[in-house]
Amino acid sequence: METNNPVGLLALQEQVKNRLEETFFESVWLHAEISEIKQHPSGHCYLTLVEKDPGSNALLAKASAVVWASSWRMIKPFFEAQTGRSLDVGMSVSVRVQVNYSVLYGLSLVVYDIDPSFTVGELELARQRTIARLEAEGMFGMNAQLELPALPRRLAVITSETAAGWRDFQRQLSGNEYGFRFQLRLYPALMQGDAAPASIIAALDAVAAEEDAFDAVLILRGGGGAMDLVCFDDYELAANVAQFPLPVLTAIGHDHDYHIIDRVAHTHLKTPTALADWLLDRFAAEAWQLDTLLQRLHLAVRTHAMAQTHVLDVLKQRIEHAVFDRHAEAQHRLDLLERRLDAVNPERALERGFLIALKNGRRTASAAAFAPGDRLAVMFSDGIVDAEVKTVKKS
What we know:
By secondary structure, the chain is α/β, with parallel strands linked by helices. Helices cover 42% and strands 24% of the residues. A hairpin with a 3-residue loop joins strand 4 (92-102) and strand 5 (106-114).
């Protein structure tokens, strides 16, 4: 081991510094991924940049970087305006850096500029690759083919139990003016970060184990930073949603957000509140239709009752006329019978001078019924005369 001409640490560090500054006299554009980001109260922003192996995701290189406050005040709003997103962990970036070496703190990179188009391109490329894969596998439209009940009341909800969107959804649904009631069961899950897709998939598996208990499953998140929502473009999560045995309804983010799981879900609404309103509208429409049918039924019953009442009135009049006619006819026949009876009334014959002979109290119309010595009664109109037969002369 050589020990000739040893150098001190400071001298070595200065040599390294000089060589680096000679080699990287000008700034360079660097492609890397943000693994850490922290904004200091002084206004400076400190980053940890890394490069990973595309296949294994293993860490290949790592370096510290700083954006001085004077640059950060311009870089931050410019990047957000161009991408609609904030710089965040897991984001791929293209930054212009000046290589800096300190004999005390080692290698560091000073960031002077950032290319927002690179970040948008990287995220969009990954997103488009996921969409293309799902399309090739026929995932789009699968969940939409499932039949959603007309009135989905039993709902499994996957979200963070502390999320504002979950509170907004419950408040909107339970406080509805119609008094509709829903059965909600929460399945808590992480709704941002690298672990979110696996957490949501685990919640979906738990719901699938009890699928007969539910009409649909809801995935809710009340918005957030754009990078917070990148997890909803995950392939594995989208594939699980597409093939889920129950209709999946999503409400993630604000109006301008549209994620891959929204595209493979049965129904997509912008926000949890909008989803609550959508559910209530289905029930309200059904209630309105039922009210309309009930009114039509009441009208039909009333119209039918009026028609039947008219028929009964007509029948009543016809019956009354028929009874009157039958009564008049019967009365006429009775009058005829009375006149006929009156015509054969013995009293009338007696009044006209005819007599009635009675033998043993019975009317006798033949002289042959009598013999000399018989007693008979002769009936006049004004009385009865007892007599004795002296002789009988036959005609």
